[in-house]
Design a protein that fits this description.
Largest sheet: 5 strands, antiparallel
Shape: globular
Number of strands: 5
Helix content: under 10%
Distance between the termini: 42 Å
Order of helices and strands: EEEEEH
Strand content: 25-35%
Length: 74
């Protein structure tokens, strides 16, 4: 995270529901919200969280879940 002010920090964020990555504000009270409503996912019930500094995303399937396939077998 990078320090933005005393009440919040700008950080990389992800929606736990769809795996969309974007920039978020991580607030001191524990809330996480997108920096811009135009820079967020379109989930009906988004669940934002800060990306852990140790997380690595090698492909689309890791961002949405290792058990889900990116393309179904034909």
């Amino acid at each position: 995270m990078t320090q933005s002010d005393g009440e919040r920090e700008k950080a990389a964020g992800i929606c736990a529901n769809c795996g969309e990555l974007f920039t978020v504000w991580a607030c001191r009270d524990g809330t996480v919200r997108p920096v811009s409503p135009h820079n967020a996912c379109s989930c009906d019930d988004p669940s934002y969280r800060v990306v852990d500094e140790d997380e690595v995303f090698d492909g689309v399937d890791e961002a949405v879940g290792a058990d889900e396939e990116e393309w179904p077998d034909v």
